[in-house]
Design goal:
By secondary structure, this protein is α/β, with parallel strands linked by helices. It has 2 domains: about 100 residues, Urease, subunit C, domain 1; about 290 residues, TIM Barrel (Alpha-Beta Barrel). About 35% of the residues lie in helices and about 25% in strands. It contains 14 helices and 17 strands. The strands form 4 sheets. Strands 1, 2, 3, 4, 5, 14, 15, 16 and 17 form a 9-stranded mixed beta sheet that branches. A 4-stranded parallel beta sheet has the order 6-7-8-9. It has a two-stranded parallel ribbon with strand order 10-11. Helix 2 packs parallel to helix 3, helix 2 packs across helix 14 and helix 11 crosses helix 12. The longest helix has 18 residues. The chain binds zinc ion.
Length: about 450
């Protein structure tokens, strides 16, 4: 593979010491970072790029999303969570086809690359089609095919046994860029016997589990009524946190101290998606208790139907801002913490543990961000500018495993014009077809 030499960069490494490099070289060889600092004069690269006016940083990692839901962007607005699900989202999805999923996911991949995301943890249906998008785009992803366990007719594309077969074919394919999770929707939908079967499969396959958990006090109340246990303790009692590939439990907004202790002890990864919580008016506590306790809190956008975009720069900025505001403590979520949550913490949730840092030997999964722009000057603190001033559109270049996915704002792996056209057609057609209610959320 090629040797790429990027010169004159500002570099935010996010290594253990938080090293920042000024006017530095970055050399990529065979898909990995080979040098940071000063390149030897006799280096003979295949490609030399002038990085003046740009900062290099680890690519952003979206730890929880439903990428094909781009086709429901702007279609379920200004509704409470139960009506948003029952009257719009699940109705639209009742007509979902695998082609809709492919084009919705392709649209999301264009958006993610353009805003500096290199890897994502995606939970949806027809994930064989999302895997095609991952392979074609050059991104990395952990993919979860969601199952409900309340009757075959409610499953989208495949039931549990079908998704197990899919995982056997798919896990660690695409040059290692595709990973998989088993995907129960949540303990408020999935019966306990069904969750137990998934735990058994996880042990058999050496897999992890990615689900939604403890999103509201109503769900806690309902769980106590049904099972006598809070949601975190209920799924813990079923062994959901003890599976070999680990557990990603999205949200965990309604948790108490015992729940927090369990999440730490069992090393559960907890994606935090504050823009969705604000848009759907879901109460959520400040992050201090869980961060101090040692929970691996990572950042995600959630689906574009409940966020409206997949720009991780927006998410990390909002994470810092809302937490300062909620806790009335401006020292909360300093810039370095926000960036680590959106990179290396998220990387662990995807099972790509070596991502999220720029250091020699790490995979070359990185982005260049333009700092030659009015809102990015002056450069007293690159970290502060990246968290509080940068936007996804400031990302100029994106590389995964040493391969350019975007160069000078041009997508290199995806046919963006065709994707915009097809995604629009499929989105319009799907919402017209979706007329039946398939499930009911009563949380
Ligand atoms: Zn979600």
């Amino acid at each position: 593979m090629a040797t790429i030499h990027i010169r004159n960069l500002e570099i935010v490494t996010l290594n253990e010491d938080g090293t920042l490099l000024h006017d530095a070289d970055l050399v990529v060889q065979d898909g990995r970072i080979a040098l940071l600092g000063s390149a030897p004069v006799d280096l003979q690269p295949d490609e030399v790029i002038d990085g003046r006016g740009k900062v290099a940083m680890p690519g952003l990692i979206n730890s929880h999303c439903h990428s094909p839901m781009t086709f429901e962007r702007g279609w379920a607005e200004d509704l409470p969570f139960d009506r948003w699900l029952n009257e719009k989202i699940w109705v639209g999805e009742s007509a979902l086809t695998s082609d809709d999923v492919y084009w919705g996911a392709a649209l999301a991949a264009c958006e993610m690359i353009r805003s500096g995301t290199v890897a994502y943890n995606d939970k949806y249906f027809y994930m064989d089609r999302v895997a095609e998008v991952v392979r074609e785009s050059g991104m990395k992803a952990a993919l979860t095919w969601t199952v409900f366990g309340i009757g075959e007719e409610t499953e989208m594309g495949r039931g549990l046994a079908g998704t197990v077969e899919w995982i056997k074919e798919m896990h660690e394919t695409g040059e290692g860029r595709v990973r998989t999770y088993l995907g129960p929707h949540s303990p408020y939908i999935c019966p306990p016997e069904f969750l137990s079967r998934i735990v058994e499969y996880a042990h058999e396959l050496g897999q992890g589990i990615h689900l939604h958990l403890a999103e509201s006090e109503d769900q806690v109340k309902q769980s106590l009524e049904r099972y006598g246990l809070r949601p975190v303790q209920h799924v813990n009692s079923l062994g959901v946190f003890d599976v070999p590939g680990g557990c990603v439990a999205a949200h965990c907004l309604a948790i108490d101290d015992t729940d927090t202790r369990i999440l730490v002890e069992k090393d559960v990864h907890v994606p935090h998606c504050p823009i969705t919580y604000m848009k759907l008016a879901m109460p959520f506590p400040p992050l201090e208790a869980r961060l101090n306790a040692g929970v691996n809190v990572c950042l995600g956008t959630d689906g574009p139907a409940s966020n409206a975009d997949m720009d991780m720069f927006a998410t990390l900025r909002q994470t810092a801002l809302i937490d300062k505001y909620q806790s009335l403590n401006s020292e909360m979520i300093p810039g370095d913490t926000a960036l680590r949550m959106a990179t290396q913490n998220s990387a662990r949730a995807l099972g790509f543990d070596d991502m999220g840092v720029l250091e020699v030997g790490a995979p070359a999964d990185l982005i260049l961000v333009n700092i030659d722009a009015p809102h990015m000057r002056p450069t007293h603190s690159l970290i502060a500018n990246l968290v509080h001033s940068a936007k996804g559109a400031d990302v100029t270049d994106v590389m995964v495993d040493g391969r350019w996915l975007m160069r000078a704002r041009e997508l290199k792996t995806l046919d963006e014009r065709r994707i915009l056209y097809e995604a629009e057609q499929h989105a319009q057609s799907m919402v017209q077809r979706g007329m039946s209610q398939v499930r009911e959320y009563k949380g």
